[in-house]
Amino acid sequence: MDSVGIVQILLDRIRAGDDGARNELFEKTYDRLVRLAAKILSADFPRLANHEAESILHQALPRLIRALEDLGPAAPRDYYLIAAQHMRWVLLDLSRRPTPLSMLSRDGSQEGNLTLDPAALAEWSEFHEQVERLPEKYREVTELLWYHGLTQAEAANLLGVSDRTVKSRWREARLRLGRLFEEESPHENPTD
């Protein structure tokens, strides 16, 4: 059975009151969520380079647990969209914190690939906030392709729409988000 099918079974069990299913769900999706955190950290939040992907995920888990209890997502699509949202909120919260002095070398220069350029950080924060403001059908596609790294075919399967619909929605989402920037986003083409 594919991973989407397993997630669906576990969500059904959670909604039926099986408390153990929640832990199983996190075990089955943990690696994907860690990859998601790592991707976002390296590409979009260089200021947070001293954080580990697992740390970001662990900060998002309590929020995700509450959301599972409150919202009771009915489908894998709902679960992945909720997870992306909570991951993004954690990263946005962390990005707004002051830069610790430990991130700077003794001479005040930047260490490694760390960029503390306030303009770049503000631009990425604005990007993630704009994703939140997209109409639902565009936000869902963006979350699944950009944050979760799904292929367009996988996203189409989760959303229950055709590949063409996903391609069209992704194109429109990029256009809407692209209006924020003069240059194209560096991640314009997620896996087809």
Order of helices and strands: HHHHHHHH
Major sheet: none
From the 3D structure, determine the CATH topology. Butyryl-CoA Dehydrogenase, subunit A, domain 3
Count of DSSP strands: 0
Low confidence ranges? 98-116, 182-189
What is the subunit arrangement here?
single chain
Question: Can you describe this structure?
Answer:
This protein is mainly α and 192 residues long. The chain has a single domain, classed as Butyryl-CoA Dehydrogenase, subunit A, domain 3 (Up-down Bundle). It has 8 helices and no strands. The protein has helices at residues 3-15, 19-44, 53-71, 76-95, 118-133, 136-147, 152-159, 163-178. Helix 7 packs across helix 8. The longest helix is centred in the N-terminal third of the chain and has 26 residues, at 19-44. Mean pLDDT is 75; it is low at 98-116 and 182-189.
